[in-house]
Design goal:
With about 325 residues, this protein is of the alpha/beta class. It has two domains: about 5-200, Rossmann fold (3-Layer(aba) Sandwich); about 210-310, Helicase, Ruva Protein, domain 3 (Orthogonal Bundle). It has 14 helices and eleven strands. The protein has helices spanning about 5-10, 20-30, 45-55, 70-75, 110-120, 155-160, 175-185, 200-210, 215-230, 235-240, 250-265, 275-285, 290-295, 300-310; strands spanning about 35-40, 60-65, 75-80, 85-90, 100-105, 125, 130-135, 140-145, 165-170, 245, 290. Strand 3 and strand 4 (about 85-90) form a beta hairpin. It is globular and about 70 Å long.
């Protein structure tokens, strides 16, 4: 594995114990310039992990706690009247950063969620009549709590589609939790140092883009995406009624990027079907729209993806 990636992991390990899948997902988002949605109950170090990543990279970091009374201007900024100069000036919001942590994004109403769409897609902000390009790199790492039912607003499909990956975070093992409790009680968590410069980060991205992907592997990924749209063509009549809408073309684009980054993180210079299997749920689970029948029967997107992976022939 690249020594710089190892250095980032070592720095993050000072405050984050376990949660390798979440760290892999954040690193993939970083290397592919993709936004990441992290879902999990409170207390699983989601916020801590994102903050640790920004510190290890030496990036500017802002955190916004989303609440039902949040306004778009609280994120983007606003025109402020200056009575001394008798003119309006722009006050920039927290979105003007490198890494924006949108904490509990599903607590904000539709206006605020839609305000993020232009920023996430175009990487620019419009305040009044002016548009401002954000300085690269720019990533949105959003968290959401799946347990809350009151005071939350489900993210619309259009915004979910903007997230390259959706990471579902689970509990630590008993051994990891014991180590967490010991560290916190002793106050022995280390200080995170910046170990990668912006120039080195650009070099890592270039190395990821050069990872080889065979044509058969490329076709295999397209088949996996197509199976979500026309499951009957792949002998998946049993799950056809559970899918309302299949994956969008953004899934194909993001999967091509993500599997290269996954192979790179595993120390390889080529993509294999194993890399696809490791990352497919994270790239696809939030973009397969389930039907009412699926929800009524407790069928999840992960279950659908498992069935598709079983049905499509591996090259």
């Amino acid at each position: 594995m690249n020594e710089k990636i190892n250095a980032i992991r070592e720095e993050m390990a000072k405050v984050v114990i376990g949660q390798e899948k979440m760290i892999d997902g954040l690193l993939i988002g970083l290397l592919c310039e993709g936004h990441i949605l992290i879902e999990g109950i409170p207390g699983l170090a989601k916020t801590t992990t994102v903050k640790a990543l920004s510190s290890a990279l030496g990036l500017r970091f802002k955190r916004v706690q989303f609440t039902p009374d949040l306004l778009p201007s609280d994120i983007l900024g606003a025109e402020i009247y200056d009575p001394q100069k008798n003119e309006f000036k722009i006050k920039r919001g927290p979105v003007f950063t490198n890494l924006l942590l949108a904490d509990e994004i599903n607590r904000a109403p539709a206006k605020v969620q839609s305000a993020l769409l232009e920023v996430m897609q175009e990487k620019q902000v419009t305040i009044g009549e002016e548009s401002f390009k954000l300085s690269p790199p720019f990533f949105v790492m959003a968290t959401q709590n799946p347990v809350e039912q009151e005071g939350v607003y489900q993210l619309p499909e259009a915004q979910l589609d903007r997230f390259m990956m959706k990471l579902v975070v689970g509990y630590n093992t008993k051994e990891e939790e014991l180590e967490i409790a010991r560290r916190i009680s002793r106050g022995t968590s280390g200080k995170i140092n910046a170990v990668v410069t912006p120039e080195e980060l650009e070099m890592l991205k270039k190395q990821v883009s050069e990872v080889h992907m065979d044509e058969e592997v490329e076709k295999y990924m397209i088949e996996l995406v197509s199976a979500t749209r026309d499951p009957k063509a792949y002998g998946l009549e049993a799950i056809a009624d559970y899918i309302q809408f299949g994956a969008s073309p953004r899934v194909s684009i993001d999967m091509f990027k993500a599997v290269k980054a996954m192979a790179f993180l595993r120390g390889k210079d080529y993509v294999s079907p194993v890399d696809i299997a490791y990352i497919i749920k994270e790239v696809m689970r939030h973009r397969v729209i389930l039907s009412y029948e699926a929800e009524a029967e407790g069928i999840t997107a992960d279950f659908i993806i498992d069935k598709i992976v079983e049905a499509v022939a591996i090259p």
